[in-house]
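Subject: Sanity check before I submit

Could someone independently write out the structure tokens for this chain? I want to compare against mine line by line before I put it in a report. The sequence has 125 residues.
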Amino acid sequence: MSEDDNGSLRIAVVGACASGKSTLVDTLRAAGYEARHVAQEHSYVPSMWQRITRPDVLIYLDVDYESIMARRPRFNFRPTDLDQQNDRLAHAREHCDFYIDTTGLTTAEVREKSLDFLRGVTGNL
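---
Independent answer below. Compare away.
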């Protein structure tokens, strides 16, 4: 697969609120990938990420509570809310192709880690 053919690789991005999903999806789309944010953290259906996107690659973004609150200071979010989201995300976390803990990482670092991973995937197709 050439770099110009990134769009044929379907990518789903899941993670807790404020983990960086929307930013990463925008970055991947700008790089030519077909990427989609799946709101798995809000669903009681464990395999929703599979049913909605049928991805070739699942990227899981993790984050700790302190980072969520630093990123969204006025967010009405409690530690128990994160626990609940992590429970809803457990199936996706177990099945992800690439896991990134975004705690303490910059947007650029998450972008580079993701693109490096995807270059490896596309290079092996």
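---
OP: Matches mine. For the report I'm noting this point. Helices lie at 21-30, 48-53, 65-71, 79-88, 90-95, 107-123.
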